[in-house]
Amino acid sequence: MAGLMGSPRRGIRRRGRDSCLRSCVVGGPIDCELPHRNYDPDMTASPERTPTERLEHPHRTLAERLEGKRVCICAGPGGVGKTTSAAAIALGLARRGQKVVVLTIDPAKRLADALGMDALGGEPQLVDPAVLAEQGIELSAGGELWAMTLDVKGTFDALIDEFASDEQARQEVLANRIYQELSSALAGSQEFTAVSRLYELDRAGDWDVIVLDTPPSRNALDFLDAPHRLGQFFEGRALRVFLAPGGVAARFLGRGTGLVLSMFSRVTGIDLMGDISTFFRSLGGITDGIIERARGTGELLRDAPTLFFVITSPEPEPVREATYLAGKLHEAGMNRGGLIVNRVHLEGLHGHDVEQVQALLAEELGPELAARVANNLADFDVLVQRDGKSVAALSHTLGDLDPILVPHLDGDVDLRGLAQIERYLFA
């Protein structure tokens, strides 16, 4: 749009700009006749996207980018609307007839609130189609929207269920105090359990698409590397030595330490030595399964049907983090589906000066109100220019000449607001 990337080309589709401006002011941006989701190539003078580049890299809608994909991973800085974008993408796919589950590892209630649900659990929950219909959201035939949050301890328990050699070994590990403390303490990191849950959902084959909302970008890098790091740990020589009969574990539980732990047990009633011994003995039976799971999740993240979207906002710090994350995704060999920029200011002067805007609006608003609106739009135009330069620079740096833009919207995101964002994403 005009003003978004450089100076507007005056005289080109002037009538369209006038109509767009009036629609945006009187009817709201969603009623505007010009697209807001991307730069309009006929109304910008962007040196970053030449006519040749537009021919070589034609616009692809979000639905086209996700065609044939099973996993959509939303990654980016914190506080840029990443969780909302994940929910809106899932909603858009469900509206197009796909069975979709969106998984968030954000403990806050933002996703549940946006979907009109009281709370989310560790298992997929169906978003009631009747609730969606009440907000004017209709799903195509076959379309279903499910949502869930990450249950870290539950995911670890499921791993034990799967890889324990028998029921006795399973019960020993799950009841073991050392395991209970470790599995709960790992809830702060979440990375491996997130990709492990993603792997389970994909392997179950119940979903056309799985949409994952990741932690903020620096933690997302841990998320990407989690399968490799966990596999290295369980394959490492140090752990193998510790688990070996007569190895470090046996020496650790030798006479001196054993005496101390026995006294501790008599005083507290807690058999710490027994718990440690049981934990490491049981762990030895499941390491191969966990190593295999780590390999499988690592392969899933790099698989062709998995697509990463870098989500950010135009502010300087999120842009820097998005640039860093995109580079790491490239280094890790991940498939990137594109750039989504939320909270972009698009409604300014649309290439006009203040006097022109005032004249355009005077007939419908009256001279006094038209003057106030025109001056207000001039203030917003500063933000439009700032965001335009930021998005243009980021697009150029990432080599993404077709970013998806979502305008800055006021108010909390509920189901109706989520549907509005979905319209921008899939425009």
Secondary structure topology:
Layout: H1 14-26, H2 51-56, H3 62-65, E1 71-76, H4 82-95, E2 99-104, H5 110-114, E3 125-126, H6 129-134, E4 144-149, H7 152-163, H8 167-175, H9 177-185, H10 191-204, E5 209-216, H11 217-235, H12 237-243, H13 248-252, H14 255-268, H15 272-283, H16 287-302, E6 306-312, H17 316-331, E7 336-344, H18 354-365, H19 367-398, E8 404-407, H20 415-425
Parallel strand pairs: 1-5, 1-6, 2-4, 2-5, 6-7, 7-8
Antiparallel strand pairs: 3-4
Helix pairs in contact: 1-18, 4-20, 7-8, 7-10, 8-15, 10-11, 10-16, 11-16, 11-17, 17-19, 18-19
Can you tag this structure with a few keywords?
427 residues, alpha/beta, 8-stranded mixed β-sheet, 20 helices, 8 strands, elongated
Explain what this protein looks like in three dimensions.
The protein is α/β, with parallel strands linked by helices. Helix content is 55%, strand content 11%. It is built from 20 helices and 8 strands. It has an 8-stranded mixed beta sheet with strand order 3-4-2-5-1-6-7-8, with helices on both faces. The radius of gyration is 27 Å and the shape is elongated. The N terminus is likely disordered.
